[in-house]
Amino acid sequence: MRIGELARRSGLSAHTIRYYERIGLLPYADRNQSRHRDYDASILVWIEFLDRLKTTGMPIRDMLRYAALREEGSGTEAARRELLQRHREQVRAHLAELNACLLVLDAKIDGYVETEKRIENHGFIRAERKREPAGARKARAG
């Protein structure tokens, strides 16, 4: 398939595909008789995997390391596994951090819901005092 079709099917732009080739994330494509890139459909699986790594926050340098090991082929499985295991632990730590943030957000939202219920049940809103900015003084008469 030509680069335009690969871009359409993968969701990447043609520019990104060329960039990924240039830096080594994607293997260089074969060329057809017209010298246009000619990709095998199997590249879509690799691009999807790269997208997963990117979505989980893997740095490009680690993606490049993984791609280089993959390109080397047999004998690099242990190194690839270790790289993915390290990344998995980082993803798990980030998920735990995000879950803690969700708990804070949930508590804050619940507080607003409770306040809205109290207002609705009592039929009034407490007037809030207007506060002067810190350091502001009222002008003295006379």
Keywords:
mainly alpha, 142 residues, two-stranded antiparallel ribbon
Q: What distance lies between the first and last C-alpha atoms, to the nearest angstrom?
A: 86 Å
Instruction: Give helix and strand order, one letter per element, not per position.
Output: HHEEHHH
* Rough outline: elongated
- Strand runs, count: 2
On the 0-100 scale, what is the average pLDDT? 90
Computed over alpha carbons, the radius of gyration is 28 Å
The main pleated sheet reads as:
2 strands, antiparallel
* Count, helices: 5
Q: In percent, how much strand structure appears in the residues?
A: under 5%
Strand-pairing-aware structural class: mainly alpha
Low-confidence sequence ranges:
none
Largest sheet: spatial strand order: 1-2
Percent of residues in helical segments? Answer: 55-70%
Question: How are the SSEs placed, and which strands pair?
Answer:
Blueprint: H1 3-10, H2 14-23, E1 30-31, E2 37-38, H3 43-55, H4 60-72, H5 77-122
Helix pairs in contact: 4-5
Overview of this structure, please?
It contains 5 helices and 2 strands; from the N terminus they run ααββααα. The termini are far apart. With 142 residues, the chain is mainly α. It has a two-stranded antiparallel sheet with strand order 1-2. The longest helix is centred in the last third of the chain and has 46 residues, at 77-122. 63% of the residues lie in helices and 3% in strands. The protein has helices at 3-10, 14-23, 43-55, 60-72, 77-122, and strands at residues 30-31, 37-38.
